[in-house]
Amino acid sequence: MSAPDVSLLEPDRLESARDAALAALAATGALDELPAVRTAHLGDRSPIALARRAIGGLPGPEKAEAGKRLNVVLQVVQAAYDERRTELEADRDVRVLAEETVDVTALPGRLPVGARHPLTTIQERAVDVFVAMGWELAEGPEVEHEWFNFDALNFGKDHPAREMQDTLFLGPEDSGLVMRTHTSPVQVRSLLTRDLPVYVVVPGRVYRADALDATHSPVFAQLEGLAVDEGITMAHLRGTLDAFASAMFGEGLKTRLRPSYFPFTEPSAELDLQCFACRGASAEPGGEPCRVCSSEGWIEVGGCGMVNPAVLRAAGVDPERYSGFAFGMGLDRAVMFRHGVTDIRDLYEGDQRFTLPFGTEG
Amino acid sequence: MRVPVSWLRTFVPGLTEEVASADAIAAALLRAGLEVEQVLRVGGDVTGVVVGRVLDVEELTDFKKPIRFCHVDVGTRVHDVVCGATNFVAGDLVAFAAPGAVLPGPFHIASRQTYGRTSDGMICSTRELGLGEEHDGILVLPPDSPLGADVVELLQMRDEVLDIAVTPDRGYTLSIRGVAREAATAFGLPFADPALLDVPPASGGHPVRIDDETGADRYVARTVTGLDPATPSPDWLQRRLTLAGMRPISLAVDVTNHVLLELGQPLHAFDLDKVKGEIVVRRAERRERLVTLDGQDRALDPGDLVIADDSGAVALAGVMGGASTEVGEATTSVLIESAHFTPVSIARTARRHKLPSEASKRFERGVDPALAPAAAEAAVRLLVELGGATAGPGTDVDRRPDPITIQMPVGQPGRVAGREYEPAVVRGRLEDVGCTVSGDVVLTVTPPPWRPDLTGQADLVEEVIRLEGYDTVPIALPTAPAGHGLTAGQRLRRTASRALAAAGLVEVVIPPFVSEEVLDVLGGGMTPPRLLNPLADTEALLRPSLLPGLLAALQRNVGRGLHDVALYETGVVFVTPGTAGTSTPPVTHRPTGEELAALDAALPVQPRHAGLVLAGTRQGRPVDWADAAEAVVALGRALGLTLELRNVQWGPWHPGRCAEVLLAGQRVGFAGELHPRVVTALQLPGRTVAAEVNLDVLVAAAEEAGPVRAPVVSPYPPASVDVALVVDAATPAADVESALRAGAGELLEDLRLFDVYAGPQVGEGRRSLAYALRLRAPDRTLTDTEVLGARDAAVAEATRRVGAVLRGA
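The joint structure predicted for all components is written out below.
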């Protein structure tokens, strides 16, 4: 091995080695060229490495100064190398990741999408409004005994009101079993099985012998409410219905009662809801026509009244001490006007396209 | 009930056009509880129709049907007119619509070319004027009609008709009288009761006997003689009937219908000359028959109330008359029946013979029993006045019970409404209704005879509150006691529904009516309830399973061009037919526990199921049995339950691709691919998969299970070890897995099947199952010895239970 070339440690030689290294780094255009540049200017055979080795050949007093000089150059070159590598890596990342760009608008649809039926979700929402008021959810069978569906609800055996229910009867002839025509039998079941006072809300499917067409369905969903307590008045019925209308269909929406007849309530009333679309404005003189309520200002949604004392007696509740109110409304109609459904068959034909847009909360 | 407003106004003289329009009357009645469905306007849309005289008639013979060319003089000029009707002659006065006139439709009249002539206007028929359905020919006006006069004015064509849907308790509003009374009350105006007639005392009339007082408590018979059968009903009478929705027929029939509409009392007119002997009200005899007015020969039921004479039954009381005593073109003597029949009896007979009639509709809802003599008198007067008849004597068999009285504290309406009513208001409102009221703190109230629906305090309360207005009831919220929220079961059912949607299924709601055929295809010996009066004879059964409905919905979706379909439904199914013959408890008091239990025992078993079907592709690959099975397992997991699957051969399922779904060893449902036979028979897409589970059982188990116990999450590192086991190809993976779990013991944290191989390397009829085991201790890092020990124990257990051999060993 040849003797160290101490001249390499001279300032101008070191400076020219530094400048050559910096120029080479600056000229390096790609990350894969960098190792060669590193070998040439920082590697074992590079001028800087050879200079380091030559330090031993200097006389003692000069060693320290030459070493300091060399270190400055080494640090500058090393820093320049690090900087250049960072730059080139960043360049590479930009290029490679750009190549990995995807089209985020082209979702492959890996997760199968489901949805819940609006009749299910509206039922849950309605029930929750009452549960928040302290009421409880009660249920009953869909095939019901006539005693619950009619007798105990004060429908006389041969009263025309029984005829008006378009009942679906179950065989055999004398079975006394019917598809329940309303959720009202659950009123009787609740009074028979629960402790007083009773505040229950009853969602459920009910049946009528109506052929399926655009506005009728043999199956539909009802929401029933029953409150039996001491001192319950018709004012409480109005208050409860207004609170429900506000919570369910829009703040401040009112309800209207019109005298009517149901065997199980006395007084009885038809229940109208102020049109949520025009809020009654369409029925005012000069009002814009409203398609939702046919410019009536009100939408008929159900029936209600004060529980007939005969019903309380049949369920073993003392009508002298307790009074109550009850109401029932069609949830199908609520879904139809809330979501703009014009044909009730859409609710019952099971077409996937109908349910999908409703998501899981309607 | 159709109520011509002009007719109504005659009984409320103060209710003039100026006081209230038809719309105002309708609104007031609606507020009082009469369901006015619409206000029909008649004649209001007819203009420019005048009285014209036909000057001459030229028959045009070149056409297939008779066509006439006429000249019509309207006083100011003469029009050329082409007309297709032939029921008029030169000289007749007709309703003529000149060019510019408007007929209902609206139909604008203009001059036009037709049948080779110019027709400068139109000669109108009754129907074209909107006066009725008669269109046999044009309307010929009375000879004294003034030429050129406005026909709308002349015929008083303009009227409004209230179309009212009468509720079953308000029989009295099936009459002009009843509606007018409500209108008078609503406007606070005097009511002129058309039933207040002077009736001559009944004596010496046609003999009448009531044999069955449970069926009739009053029978008034009046006779008239010397009626001119050729006399037609006058226009005003025909017009009133037409407006009210009835067809004019003959004077005698029109008069009875007029009284029915005006007073609400159904009358029947017998041809007196055909009645043989005494009129008897009795039940039908065994095997008795009657030919009714509609020509039907009917077998009578011993429960039917009939009107009989010496020859037998001559009418179905309160429902329909008989042919043998029908009033006809030669009838000159008439017996008018004005009776009060028991509602239940009439309702049953009308239903039994499927004969709802104007009469039965009223009797069922209750007719005023005090009305019978006045109604008969009203009919007699009209026949005398219009038909030239002579009034005969009358008979009145009166067995009415005493009227009921009701005691009511004067404050009761206020207590029910939640506000106070002045005692004077309470009394006044009850008197408006027609009640007689006495007493002070406690009122003694006698309802009027036309209100049989007023039987108790609650009924009187309603009258006061409704007449004061429901809108005057205050608004208050009741205070319910603190509730318990939804029950665990109710919340779990919501969870189940959400879990199925989250599994990528779309919820549907399907009516539960199914056919015998589809159940035969599905097999399984299901015995659901049967409807007596199904909407469609082909779907007379209630679904014992959700599958028929879901599969039909699938087919519908596919039929509408959808290929990838995934549906679910949760709903009640009906698995037993229910039992007959349960006795019905009374409603006067609470039934006994046994009575209630018997009612419930008679019901079909009605569990709630969850069902799902899939067809087509998912995630770009064809659906298969696992899509259905995994959805069910996911449903169980959402409820906190571990559901197990077992191969089973069952009913409608592919024998090799069906799982029975087990919960703690008990079957709760099925999941898998449908049998190709079912797919073909129901025309479903190939490889349709489905599942159905008993949701009630799952929810009950989840409720029972209580809160989840949290696992211990160990901070120590895991040890992973794989084992590949060769087993008999028929050995279920689940068995291998449970053996590994049992053998590995408590150190096993997780186990996963990651490869299944069948082929020459493992031999015929065998397969290799490769599992990754993750082992971990809660309190230390496992040593190699522990890990290998657990693995060897797991393999040994698999060997012991299912003969597994370590692959490569």
